[in-house]
What we know:
The protein has 133 residues and is mainly α. The protein has helices at residues 2-13, 39-45, 50-53, 57-69, 75-87, 93-100, 107-132. 15% of the residues are buried.
Amino acid sequence: MMQIKNTLFKIFTKKYHFKKPRNFFDIEGLDGDIFTPSMAYQKIQNLQPKEEYFKDKDSFLHFTNRLESDNLIDGNEKIALHFLAQKSPHLDMQSFDSLSKHSQINQKMQKILESSIRKLAMIEYITSHSAQG
């Protein structure tokens, strides 16, 4: 019992020294801080503008082959994009999106299609903004 009392006494009488809270808005130590885009982002920036790869089916299929060779998409996503190019009435994001939600496509394929469309939308966004400036 005496040992517990001594331990509690030590706990309650100990002086706690808290560090001064860090100011996260203080940028003094960030003089050498720079932004370095990832390799994937740089590869996407170097792609041709979207008008080139949505021009016709052959251009789009060639573009998907290039995306795979640059490791921007995997084999399943390439197959999904080829499927969209073959089955979609138009080569545009809206047609791809509506086709991916078709009820006769199994759930696993729908997920791959949706993932592929998201990546393609990201690539389209980056290339269209990189071409501007």
